[in-house]
Write a structure and sequence with these properties.
The protein is α+β, with helices and mostly antiparallel strands. The protein has helices at 5-13, 16-26, 33-40, 44-56, 92-105, 109-126, 134-150, 173-178, 181-194; strands at residues 60-65, 73-78, 152-155, 164-167, 198-205, 208-215. It is globular.
């Protein structure tokens, strides 16, 4: 029996606690063992052992986070290998289809198709995004995007750069890597749905992926 990538990786990880660690880290830029203990209510040694196993198997790496005082703190973060554990709506067939469209209709055809797709998606979401204010619409949109697998949340805290929808995953990651226009199309979609200017900033470090959509209230 053929086993797909997600099932194989899940079988390799093998324990619910390790999956919880990976899911917790996915929504952050990295956490220390003590921070994981506080969030997960597990013992220090239990989490430490799981992190060491996940690091050995290639799902985590470490970096030293500078502190205001004292030595840098060791922090665990996801590697690119962990991407296969999270929802993905696109696959090799989708990329091959867009490549075929380019070969048949010319180099601009895939971008035209993606533009049309995002226009349709925007129209669909306009029926679902609710709220009289920008903040209400942002919270509604973040909830919808989270359901779609983008691990999205509305953030408006001091020191975070202003109100934003922060997404820690993209189910269409392989498309984003191939077609940079998708970032601009996402930004334009958010502007239409929130009815306000939006700035999109993307961050990638090791296994970290973040897309932050900043807007004014």
């Amino acid at each position: 029996m053929e086993v797909n990538v997600n099932q194989r990786l899940l079988a390799e990880i093998g324990r619910t606690q390790r999956l919880e660690i990976l899911n917790t880290l996915k929504r952050t830029r990295g956490l220390s063992v003590n921070e994981l203990v506080a969030r997960m209510k597990m013992s220090y040694m239990g989490i430490k052992q799981h992190c060491l196993t996940l690091e050995r198997d290639g799902y985590l790496d470490t970096w030293r986070r500078p502190q205001k005082m004292g030595r840098p703190e060791m922090v665990y973060r996801l590697t690119r290998r962990s991407h296969g554990l999270f929802q993905a709506d696109s696959n090799a067939f989708t990329l091959e289809l867009l490549q075929s469209i380019e070969e048949i209709y010319g180099p601009n055809a895939p971008e035209k198709l993606l533009y049309n797709l995002f226009e349709r998606k925007t129209s669909e979401l306009k029926e679902r995004v609710k709220g009289a204010t920008v903040e209400e619409r942002a919270k509604s949109l973040a909830a919808i995007r989270d359901e779609e697998g983008h691990m999205a949340q509305f953030v408006n805290e001091p020191g975070e750069g202003g109100p934003q929808i922060l997404e820690c995953h993209s189910p269409i990651m392989n498309l984003i890597e191939k077609y940079e226009i998708i970032g601009r199309l996402e930004q334009e979609m958010f502007e239409k749905l929130l009815a306000t200017p939006v700035r999109r900033e993307e961050t990638r470090t090791s296994g970290l992926y973040e897309a932050a959509f900043y807007f004014g209230l």
